[in-house]
């Protein structure tokens, strides 16, 4: 059973997540023709060594069911954003690989996406609240990893790849 404070905090979190997802998806589609799901896939691949990940690792990284990922990659590959290729370390496995067109699309979409995130998420917060908020989010994430059903993702992302130089 949740306490009253826990319930109110959870509902506040849900309101933020649901509305942010809607706004981010709308902005990405309007400005770049990408969905938020496309952006999540492209971002994870751009942040990975060689811009590729095994399908299982990519599904874990973005917290999707493998079947959802497979269907989405089919649509993205039809648009030239990603490719599937045998894994160089295990030919039985398949990797999702970011194409040049996918990286170009990600780089084009990221400044507008980052501006929206800044405006909707960070502009309303006191900068002094960020360390505590980050610590709380990291603690919740660690709890989910420790007690959830998905394995721990292969790497922890620290930057939006489309905004970094030398990607």
UniProtKB/TrEMBL annotation:
Residues 6-142 form the HTH marR-type domain. Transmembrane segments: none annotated. Keywords: DNA-binding. The keyword DNA-binding applies. It holds the Pfam family MarR_2. It comes from the Bacteria. GO terms for biological process: response to stress. Residues 148-167 are annotated as: Disordered. One of its GO terms (molecular function) is DNA binding. This is DNA-binding MarR family transcriptional regulator. It comes from Geodermatophilus normandii.
């Amino acid at each position: 059973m949740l306490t009253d404070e826990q319930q109110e905090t959870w509902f506040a979190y849900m309101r933020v997540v649901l509305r942010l997802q809607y706004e981010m998806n709308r902005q990405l589609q309007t400005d770049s023709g990408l969905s938020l799901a496309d952006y999540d896939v492209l971002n994870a691949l751009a942040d990975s060594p060689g811009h590729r990940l095994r399908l299982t690792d990519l599904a874990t990284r973005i917290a999707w069911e493998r079947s959802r990922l497979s269907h989405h990659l089919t649509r993205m590959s039809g648009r030239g954003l990603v490719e599937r290729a045998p894994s160089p370390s295990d030919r039985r496995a398949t990797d999702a690989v970011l194409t040049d067109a996918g990286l170009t699309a990600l780089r084009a979409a990221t400044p507008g996406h980052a501006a929206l995130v800044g405006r909707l998420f960070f502009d309303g917060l006191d900068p002094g609240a960020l360390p505590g908020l980050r610590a709380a989010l990291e603690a919740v994430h660690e709890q989910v990893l420790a007690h959830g059903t998905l394995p721990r993702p292969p790497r922890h992302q620290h930057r939006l790849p489309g905004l970094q130089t030398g990607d």
